[in-house]
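This section describes the prediction task in plain terms. A model, or a person checking by hand, is given the sequence of a single protein chain and must write out its three-dimensional structure as a string of tokens. No templates, partner chains or ligands are provided. The sample shown here is typical of the held-out split.
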Amino acid sequence: MARRRLSDQQKARIAKIQEKRRQRAGRQAEKNLAAAGAEQQRAGRVVVRHGRSLLIRSDDGRLIWGMFRANLGEVVCGDNVIWQPTANGEGVVVAVEPRSTALSRPAFNGQEKAIAANITQLVVVLATYPEPAGYLLDQYLVAAERVGVNGLICLNKIDLLDAEARIAFAGQYALYRDIGYPVVQISAKTEHGLDPLLERLRGETSILVGQSGVGKSSLINALIPDEDVLEGRLSDATGLGKHTTSAATLYQLESGGELIDSPGVRSFRLGSLSRQELERGFREFVPYLGQCRFHNCTHLNEPGCAIQAAVEQGEIAPDRLASYQHMMQASAAGG
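The expected answer:
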């Protein structure tokens, strides 16, 4: 179903309501700070944001519920922050550290809105059913290249395949291995079936993406066995019930690393991209950029195109060029 477009009047009304909420929350945050006195400021990490409130994991491991100053702009899951304790046992974020990366998506007004910060890895989950779409995989990998994070291809539910089918399934992604993307085969249903993924998650801040039905929820449940415990603590702290963690939430993995779980991130789609951004989203294109006959070559049907020549010479997979051309044409059409 096509998404209903908001009128300019509706957008203005939503923006006005949001601004009033920001001002109200800002006044409350300043009031809390004024009552706190000059307590020592501390470092922390945003675990989850719910409206104008945050759950912060302090540098000593404690979970602190608090607010953030209005002049900080958007504060999102994964942000590294400086916070100050307040008299009520909570805290106020007074500064946000510069982000190394930010994953964004288009907001209702068409502008990019950050939904997770300081991630280092985008994990694309695939399964034999629903049948994987190479174009969708390429979109996710372009997103990873654009954000500047590692891309990992995760072939899930291999317990449903016999040995021959596993080899065939993995063989579909040999070209991605060739251009530098790691590919792992996993199962949440077998002993040690997640070990290849856990090894790749260690030391990273990862987000899982993939189409519906590939088993992302089962993976989240297997990777984060204490998810219900944190959800309960969020509910107790906020009084907002057990659905607080429908927002992007940062979990620490027992095996090492961090995982951000967010329904919005899982269905992440590319926003608007320039031709240059899209070109560099296909990492195997990079050695050939600048070698086309025309400096503004779109690699669609121009003569003297270095990218098309590389395809003819077997240096670039035809399917990858087809994905690029599809994205290029969709971008030009505003889709």
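For orientation: The chain has eleven helices and 13 strands.
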